[in-house]
Amino acid sequence: MDFSNHQAIYLQIMNYVCEKILLTHWNAEEKIPSIRDLAVELQVNPNTVQRSYDFLQELGAISNKRGIGIFVEKDAIRRVTHYKRNEFIKNELPNVFKNMHLLKIEMHEIEVLYKNFLKSQSKQK
């Protein structure tokens, strides 16, 4: 995983885990990599992964079953979607709108681009 300098590493790891859940690479009630295993895989300090997992536990997306492992919660997709959607609307969308305004990009142009994006995604599956 290539880390960006623009965001804390633990948040990037949290986003990585969220993406795994949203793409159903890690399914509900499925065991996920341990803190140590994910730290080795991503080549980061286990404390950084611990911080990411703690955040996701507070969100209710994962849970630690002591002695057994860490598991994806039943409603993880709903919880992650809700969190990520709110973060996108709060932190990213204002900048998108600002740039659209500055560059005089109309909403219908975005809609066409988005529809093309969705078509390309469905072809990749």
Order of helices and strands: HEHHEEHH
The CA-CA distance between the termini, in Å, is 22 Å
Instruction: Report mean pLDDT, rounded to a whole number.
Output: 96
Number of alpha- plus pi-helical segments: 5
Tell me the radius of gyration. 17 Å
In words, what does this structure look like?
The protein is mainly alpha-helical and 125 residues long. Helix content is 66%, strand content 8%. It has five helices and three strands. Strands 1-3-2 form a three-stranded antiparallel β-sheet. A hairpin with a 3-residue loop joins strand 2 and strand 3. The longest helix has 28 residues. The protein is elongated. It starts with 8 loop residues before the first helix and ends with a helix. The model has no long low-confidence stretch (mean pLDDT 96).
